[in-house]
Amino acid sequence: MKALLFLCTFLINFTLVDLEKRTLLDGKIEMLVPTHFTEMPGDMLVKKYPGKSRPKFVLTDERGKTNLAFSVLENPADSTVIDDYLKAIVSSYKQNFPTAKWIGNGIMRIGNKKAGFLKLVTDGQDQKIFNFVFLTDLEGKLLVGTFNCVEKDMEEWRPIGEQMVGSIDFK
Questions:
Q1: In the chain, helix, strand, coil percent, each to 5?
Q2: Residue 94: CB partners within 8 Å, gap ≥ 6?
Q3: Is residue 68 part of a domain?
Q4: Residue ranges making up the domain that contains 142
Q5: Closest Cα partner for 60 from 158, 118, 146?
Q6: How far is CA 146 from CA 5, 14, 58, 69, 70, in A?
Q7: Which of 53, 60, 83, 155 is the most exposed place for a label (fewest CB within 10 A)?
Q8: Per-residue pLDDT tens for 14-67?
Q9: Cα–Cα distances in Å, from 84 out to 29, 89, 90, 128, 158?
């Protein structure tokens, strides 16, 4: 009976999202991305990511509510410093988002690289946002990526975001 209930719950919550392999960041990575994601227009980018630390590249859905963002920072990076960068980013998020609901953080592998990650729900402009932030090295620099969606869509999108991040292949 429990298995049947689980299966019914899974089927009710399951939404099919077509993914395709795309080459991103000037050919430096390949990853699975929803087929309907497009590059976020500049005006939306400024509105959704105010301030000077906005990501350099963002893919989004048609509503602008589910996003995949990347920034390659000038900070030097390799596998030996990922733990230190993760500690600093976790500390920064805890300071800047004191009411955030933390889901977890730690070290994982993305492709052949060591990566740090944090998962949390923060207050957005008009609703709560699920954030899956990951960081690793790319050509000697710090790559910071974020998958995010509105909290009400988290159950559907979190596993897809995790699949997307897990599919990254460094060229």
A1: 30, 45, 25
A2: 100
A3: yes
A4: 21-170
A5: 146
A6: 33, 23, 9, 5, 7
A7: 53
A8: 557 899 999 999 999 999 999 999 999 988 888 888 877 889 899 999 988 999
A9: 24, 9, 10, 28, 26
Cβ contact 119:105 at 8 Å: yes
Q: Which residue has the tokens 């052949």?
A: 112
CATH code of 109's domain: 3.40.1000.10
Spatial neighbors of 97 by CB under 8 A, at least 6 apart, are 120, 122, 123
Give the per-residue pLDDT at 11: 44
Q: Is residue 13 part of a domain?
A: no
Taking only the tens place, the pLDDT of each residue in 73-98 is: 999 999 999 999 999 999 999 999 99
Query: pTM to 2 decimals?
Result: 0.87
Chain position carrying tokens 């889901």: 103
For residues 143 and 136, is the Cβ–Cβ distance under 8 A?
yes
Report the SS3 class of residue 60: strand
Domains contained in the chain, number: 1
**15: in domain:** no
For range 124-141, the mean pLDDT: 94
Q: For residue 9, is it within any domain?
A: no
